[in-house]
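#struct-help
A.M.: can someone run this one for me? Single chain, 327 residues.
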Amino acid sequence: MAKETTSNAQDLLGVILAAGKGTRMLPFSERFPKPILPIGGKPLLVHQIEALRELGVRELVIVIGHLGYEIVRSLGDGSEYGVKIRYVEQEETLGIAHALCKLERHVDRPFFLFLGDIFFETENLASMVERLGRGTRDETAAVLAVKREPNREAIRRNFVVHTETDGRVTRVIEKPRVPTTDLKGCGLYLFDVAFFDAVRRTPRTAMRDEYEITDSIQIFIDDGWRVEAAEVVRDDLNLSFPSDLLLLNLHYLRTHGIDKIVGKNVVLPEGSEISNSVVMDGVRFLHPVKIDRALIFPDTVVDRRGRVDKIILTPGQELHCGSLFDD
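D.P.: on it. Structure tokens below:
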């Protein structure tokens, strides 16, 4: 018989952290918060919202900061996506646990937590909900989404998760110098509200001078709460540098088995060709072109002839990405 859970996902809250400055994403981060940069023709955050909605989550809180008004303008109240969104502003970005401290009074039930600058490819997120117990110490009070990571350097950039044979987490280590397991934490979590007791007691770290969520999780474990790991992440792709945006869009096309995405009201002169590219709404080409391996932002006017290749175009900027490719 399956374990009885607290509730279904409709009783959960979705929380997305989207306050970071994304300084390494310059020049895009001057105008666009990283969480609304386009992946497959829609903002990164929309992919996360849709994943939560498919689970049955209908209420979300999004933490905003840098250019937060652009996120509000993009997503509105959430009705377009079948959810209700509230926004909370984080004035200082001092780590994930710091953001959660600011959120406590806005969270009244178990909640999914997504980091808003990561593109997740997942399977069976519902299994995380099935694991969550009734909020007592002898049942599961937190579930960490993890993946088996063969790249040890990727583990060093994230956190490593140590478990017992039944999936119970015993230890989490932020940015380990010497990973001793291949189980990597991925920035997607499910917490009971009891977790806030640990968050409030999280110290500021010497390593990054921030309040790390991994410290909060370890405090929670040491307090005797049951935390489990769920291998539900196939891939977690970070937007760290501008060129990552093109690579991630090409990855999206490839994994979805499509050659191109062309938005609405695109003006494309006769004789033009588009392949392996994302061309968003309202783009206008002034001359016939052959487009390949390109991402073109909405309402961009393209005054180019011939081949448009290995490039990101916005209404005011060009980013050439030829060094990413062998040819």
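A.M.: thanks! Residues 1-7 have pLDDT under 50 and may be disordered.
D.P.: also worth noting: Residues 63 and 88 are 5 Å apart (CA to CA).
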